[in-house]
Design goal:
There is one protein chain. With 447 residues, the chain is α/β, with parallel strands linked by helices. The chain folds into 3 domains: 10-39, no CATH class; 45-225, Rossmann fold (3-Layer(aba) Sandwich), CATH 3.40.50; 263-435, Nucleotidyltransferase, domain 5 (2-Layer Sandwich). 36% of the residues lie in helices and 17% in strands. The chain contains 17 helices and 14 strands. The strands form 2 sheets. The chain has an 8-stranded mixed sheet with strand order 3-4-5-2-6-7-1-8. Helix 13 (323-336) packs across helix 14, helix 15 packs across helix 17 (421-435) and helix 16 crosses helix 17 (421-435). The longest helix has 15 residues, at 69-83. It starts with 9 loop residues before the first helix and ends in a 12-residue tail after the last helix.
């Protein structure tokens, strides 16, 4: 197996050595060299901030906020300026103000990352950084792509490229100007957005001749350099949500055209807590077979609020468990949420589904349901409830939401996975709570 790169910075690895190992290191390395080691970028950076190996031409850092993208970019620029006497480098921000405030003068910008004695001079009026060896870096605005026509560069760094209004135009002009030296290189750092040009760029990784390397990362990867309270707050508020997956986990989150659900719809009505509830059910979409390769057992908890709206409380779906073990998960969910009923599809398992559940919990209130329509046809009326704002997800439910967003209008499932088992369980739960036919209550008729 290939060796896995230690995600910790070299400095953190040194800190984690025993006192005896640290003393041995100090004895073996001259004091001046030791000072350079513990203060250098290669030592203090975590693994995701270090340039990739190999003969690449474009390095894309696609990562969440706080990952240290700016720090990585600034350290790389300084290294290129120091390595090549008279190097010419382009720094492109979304605006000139961003390029100056973040890339140059920011807390982790080029000036901050340059060691005393090696720091370049900065002339704001000329938008120019100059190193002692004659290397220079010029600032550009992505809002003015035509300004990149004409100049030539050895290297370039573009920051928050997903915010550029005309990124393809900027990159086209920039790449035509990257023609100095033997190995012109481009570094792009950005928090992702579902933009066609960015998705195409990511898809090029691994394609022969593309010369692209993508570094992916999360906010949490840089936790050692971020306040613990910040990490706790953002994970509590946004962890697992669409915004959190994009801004914290560095994922490109996209909606599929023609899908029954959209992620924006989930976010618009998401709640941190459920209100007073009048009825709760656990719905089960059991797998047709057992084993690690079998489909998941969809287990979703939902409730009807006193306000008449539906609330999806939890996704307890599991995969690879035997019937008695997934039945225990169902019963545990029913106990935890004080469910009034367990609803389970019996098309595949028949009487076995009810039998295995009652073997685990003999008094379990159980209702078998049989599907007469396909999964997508059953899902459409439930999707309509979401469309008019009658359903809220309580907290993040990313795996369930991914499946819902893969169900297509008119039939079909675009993934993830082979089968929308979590989504099907949700459909059974909300159908039982909000769409099932009610039996008329007895009363007195008047004539």
């Amino acid at each position: 197996m290939p060796e896995t790169k230690d995600p910790r910075s070299l400095l953190q690895q040194i800190v984690d050595l025993t006192a005896e190992q640290q003393r041995a290191m100090c004895d073996a390395v001259p004091l001046g060299q030791l000072a350079d080691i513990v203060t250098s970028d290669a030592t203090t950076a975590h693994a995701g901030q270090l340039p990739p190996e190999g003969d690449w031409t474009t390095w894309l850092i696609l990562a969440g906020r706080g990952f240290g993208k700016t720090r990585a970019g600034a350290a790389w620029v300084h290294a290129q300026a120091a390595a090549t006497k008279g190097a010419r480098i382009a720094l492109i921000g979304a605006t000139l103000a961003d390029a100056r405030a973040v890339m140059v003068e920011g807390e982790t910008g080029v000036l901050a990352r340059s060691m005393i004695g090696r720091r370049p001079s900065f002339e704001p009026s000329r938008r120019l950084l100059t190193w002692r060896n004659g290397s220079t870096a010029s600032l550009f605005s992505a809002a003015e792509p035509e300004t990149l026509r004409g100049p030539q560069f050895h290297h370039a760094w573009g920051d928050e490229a997903a915010r550029w209004g005309d990124a393809p135009g900027v990159l086209a002009n920039l790449r035509m100007g990257l023609r100095l030296g033997d190995r012109p290189r481009l570094l792009l750092t950005t928090t992702p957005r579902p933009l066609p040009w960015l998705k195409q760029l990511v898809d090029d990784e691994g394609r022969a001749g593309a010369g692209l390397v993508v570094t992916r990362g999360r906010t949490y990867d840089n936790a050692a350099n971020l306040p613990a309270a910040f990490i706790a707050d953002v994970m509590r508020d946004y962890g697992g949500t669409r915004l959190g997956r994009q801004e914290l986990d560095g994922e490109i989150i996209d909606d599929i055209e023609g899908a029954l659900w959209t992620r924006a719809g989930f976010e618009a009505h998401r709640r941190r807590e459920a209100p007073a509830l009048v009825r709760t059910v656990v719905a089960v979409d059991p797998p047709a077979s057992a084993g690690a390769s079998a489909d998941a057992c969809g287990i979703v908890v939902a409730a009807l609020g006193a306000d008449g709206r539906g609330y999806v409380l939890a996704d307890r779906s599991v995969q690879g468990l035997s019937p008695d073990n997934w039945a225990r998960v169902v019963v545990a969910a029913a106990d935890m949420f004080s469910a009034d009923r367990v609803v389970a599809e019996v098309n595949n398992g028949g009487d076995m589904v009810g039998s295995v559940l009652r073997t685990v919990a003999p008094m379990l209130p159980f209702k078998p349901v049989r599907a007469a329509l396909g999964k997508v046809a059953r899902a459409e009326p439930v999707a309509a409830l979401y469309g008019v704002g009658l359903v809220s997800h309580v907290g993040p439910l990313p795996a369930l939401e991914d499946e819902l967003c893969g169900l297509m209008t008119g039939g079909g499932f675009a993934g993830p996975g082979r089968s929308p088992d979590r989504a099907d369980a949700l459909v059974w739960a909300l159908t039982e709570l909000m769409l099932a036919k009610k039996t008329a209550a007895p009363g007195v008729r008047s004539f």
